[in-house]
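Supplementary Note 2. Why include the ligand at all?

Several targets in our set were suspected to adopt different conformations when bound, so apo predictions alone were not considered sufficient. For every target with a known small-molecule partner we therefore ran a joint prediction. The input for iron/sulfur cluster is given below.
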Amino acid sequence: MLDQTPKEIAERKALRINPLKTCQPVGALYAALGVRRCMPHSHGSQGCVSYHRTFLTRHFKEPAVASSSSFTEGASVFGGGANLRSSVKNIFDLYDPDIIAVHTTCLSETIGDDLNAYILEMEIPDDKLVVHCNTPSYVGSHVTGHANMVAGFIKYLADKRAPKNDRIGVFPGFVNPGDIRELKRLLGLMGLPFIMLPDQTGVLDGPMTGVYEMYPDGGTTIDEIRALGGARMALALGEFASTEPALALKTKCGVDSKVMPLPFGVAMTDSFLMALSEISGNPVPRELEEERGRLVDLMLDANPYFYDRSCAIFGDPDTVLGLASLALELGLRPRFLVTGTPGEAFEKRGSALLGSHGALGGARVRAAGDLFELHQWIKNEPVDLLIGTSYGKQLAKAENVPFVRAGFPILDRYGHAYQPLIGYEGAIKLAIKIADAIMDRMDRDCADEDLELVM
Ligand code: SF4
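The joint prediction is reproduced in token form.
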């Protein structure tokens, strides 16, 4: 399928082939689904929201509910204010959410619709809320859109007069509900009360009950978002997805945040738990020490199969950096780190991470990259393992490379949204998957007389 990808690399500027990102509203919609009884609303044409919903549904295998301002030619020329007013009225009348979270699209951004003014001027029922954020898709990526929507909730709702409380805010970044469940478990074990924003557990990984609920029993409540204004502090996990919400909370309510990497692997999970220990004054419980011990034991046992194997990792920036950190701890040798999300910071962080393990020599780290380029690099320097989203499967097949699925989106397998990648438990699951992929390949390639039953 990708046989025509040439080995020779030509300079490209205004062209992406097999991009590694999608548009900002996908992230904004996902963030809005993590607020209780919230209807995400796409201010643009129907085609946009239809794509965004399909994209999320394919990953989560759950319906991703959202509405649209349904722009036609008139709104495109004269502005979408009237469409938004009618939409908001109809949504509250028909679907009765507590809050509507509006995000813009390329079209409404290009014609310059002023969402602030529209929302200030429109009639909103007393017990209902409308918030918005700007998500022009010609900048950033779905990760940026997620950050903007979370910041939007804070700008509208966090209350600087909220009573001081003993909770910390936690911005989990662009991760799966499985990761958020794991974060909540870790926070609970550390005895630290928290407000998670957003929280898609119970919404996009809800149980089958036989009854369709438009607003499943999950998500951050509006009162919790208000109370963020009185929180002790916030932990912003993932620099690329969570810095914006941290800044918004500081600006609006004066609450400080600590921006940290997503807790992937040993070192990053250690730092996360030490931060929780420092904030709470509680020691790390034995249960977590044992989990860490199990992870380290597994890493040592399987080290001969990890050691010095080269790999390429691609996906969202915070996830790629986390996966790279775990890969280095396992003894793998990351040669290529690629994200589709723009931003020099990714290249700096990735290079610094590889450099800190003495693994930078000849490795490439690329932001705003694409899979075509990664394929060309791999053609020139084959790797032993590919780690990333479903979009890597053709590349893995074309180059006959073992492939481990991790990140967003996973469109061609089931259950990934349930599985945490973070924490020691997430690292154990990932390490097992990586070892399986490498060892399956060895079994397939070896001579019959070398096929070992016991490793
Ligand atoms: S037009 Fe813009 S907002 Fe709509 S789907 Fe395309 S990139 Fe996304």
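Residues 23, 25, 44, 48, 51, 105-106, 137 surround iron/sulfur cluster (CB under 6 Å). The chain has a mean pLDDT of 97. Comparable summaries for the other entries are listed in the accompanying table.
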